[in-house]
Write a structure and sequence with these properties.
The protein is an alpha/beta fold. 34% of the residues lie in helices and 25% in strands. The longest helix has 20 residues. The relative contact order is 0.15.
Length: 328
C-alpha cells in the first residue's frame, strides 16, 4: 500500500489527500499550523501529522504531494527528489524562473519522477477540445481568447482572503502565477509562441501585495494570435476559451462545448456533467500509476519550465512596455 506525504494541508493539500486516501493510500501530513493538521484529521485518516519538516523527512514514503505556497515548492521538492521519492508538485513550479531551473537541474540528476499538477489538463471537456482543435474542427485557427476571472474574496469563504497566500507577493500569490493554468493550456494546445506583450497590474481595491490583473497578447509563427486575460477581481467567476478559425468558432465553458461552423450559422452544443473534483481524481490516479511504473508523467518539469519562461517574458514586457521575444 502506498504511503503518501502531503506537504501543506490547505485547500489543495486536503483535496489531494482525500482523493489519494479514497484510492487506497495511507496518508501522512506536514503543515506548520497545527490547526490545519487537526482539521485534516477530521476529513480523512492521517497516520502521522508533523509541524516540523525535518521530522517528516525522517520517515519513508512512496511519494509526496507538494501543496504548500509556491515560495516553498523548490526547496521542498528538492528535499524529496534527492531522497529518490517521487513528487506530485502543485503549480506553478516556483515564483521565478531562476529557482525553477535549480529544481530542474536536481530533477534531471535524480532520475526520480515528478508530476506537475496543472490539473485542467485532466478536465475531460478540455481534453475533448484539444482533440477537436487537432482535427481542425473550425478550420485554420486565427485567434484564441482565454478568459479567467474570479474574485479572490470568494475563493475561500472560510478564511480572510488577506490571510490566504494568494494575497502575498512574498509567498508566490497573484493572478499571473496562480492562474498560469491557462498559460499551460495554451502551451498544451499550441506549443511555445514567438513573442508577447503583457501588462501586469494591481487595479482593484483588494488588500493584497501582488497582481490582480494580467492581459497578454501572444503571437505564434503561424497566423494564430492569442489574447489572454487573468484577474482576481471579477464577479461572477468565469472561465472560458474561444477559438476562432477560418470555418467557424469553438467555445469552451466549464462543462460545455459549443461549435458554430460556416455556413450553418448556428451553434451545436455538447454538454458534460463532471464535478470539479474529477480532474483532481484523475491526477491522483496518474500519480499512482507513475509510482507503480505503469506510465511516465504526462505533465512534467519541462512543461513547468516552459510556463515559467512565459511568465518571465510577461514580467519583462510589463516592466519595459515592449514586445518581448520568447526564449525557446
Amino acid at each position: 500500500m502506498n504511503h503518501i506525504l502531503i506537504l501543506g494541508t490547505g485547500s489543495a493539500g486536503k483535496r489531494h489527500a482525500k482523493n489519494l486516501h479514497d484510492l487506497g493510500c495511507i496518508i501522512s501530513c506536514f503543515d506548520p499550523r497545527q490547526d490545519r493538521l487537526d482539521e485534516a484529521g477530521t476529513l480523512f485518516p492521517v497516520l502521522r501529522g508533523y509541524t516540523s519538516l525535518d521530522d517528516a523527512l525522517a520517515n519513508e514514503y512512496s511519494g509526496v504531494v507538494v501543496a504548500s505556497p509556491p515560495v516553498f515548492h523548490v526547496p521542498q521538492a528538492i528535499s524529496f527528489l534527492e531522497r529518490g521519492i517521487p513528487v506530485l508538485l502543485e503549480k506553478p513550479v516556483s515564483p521565478d524562473l531562476t529557482s525553477a531551473k535549480k529544481l530542474s537541474e536536481v530533477f534531471a540528476s535524480s532520475n526520480t519522477p515528478l508530476l506537475l499538477g496543472y490539473t485542467w489538463r485532466w478536465w475531460p471537456p478540455l481534453q475533448r477540445v484539444r482533440n477537436l482543435i487537432a482535427d481542425n474542427i473550425v478550420g485554420d485557427l486565427l485567434h484564441v481568447q482565454f478568459d479567467l476571472s474570479a474574485h479572490l474574496a470568494d475563493w475561500h469563504p472560510w478564511e480572510r482572503y488577506q490571510d490566504f497566500f494568494m494575497s502575498s507577493r512574498d509567498l508566490g500569490g497573484g493572478a499571473l502565477l496562480d492562474e498560469s493554468h491557462w498559460i499551460d493550456l495554451m502551451l498544451w494546445f499550441f506549443g511555445m509562441p514567438k513573442r508577447m506583450f503583457a501588462r501586469i497590474d494591481r487595479i482593484s481595491d483588494l488588500e493584497i501585495s501582488t497582481d490582480d490583473n494580467v492581459d497578454m497578447f501572444i503571437e505564434y509563427d503561424s497566423k494564430i494570435r492569442i489574447s489572454m486575460h487573468l484577474d482576481l477581481h471579477g464577479r461572477p467567476h468565469e472561465r472560458t476559451i474561444r477559438f476562432r478559425g477560418t470555418d467557424g468558432t469553438l467555445f469552451w465553458k466549464e462543462n460545455e462545448i459549443a461549435i458554430g461552423c460556416f455556413p450553418e450559422q448556428k451553434w451545436e452544443v455538447e454538454a458534460f456533467h463532471y464535478e470539479r473534483n474529477e480532474m483532481f481524481i484523475r491526477v491522483a490516479q496518474e500519480f499512482l500509476n507513475v509510482l507503480g511504473g505503469k506510465e511516465p508523467p504526462s505533465c512534467d518539469m519541462e512543461d513547468g519550465i516552459k510556463v515559467m519562461r512565459l511568465i518571465e517574458a510577461a514580467r519583462e514586457s510589463s516592466r519595459t512596455g515592449a514586445v518581448v521575444e520568447v526564449c525557446q
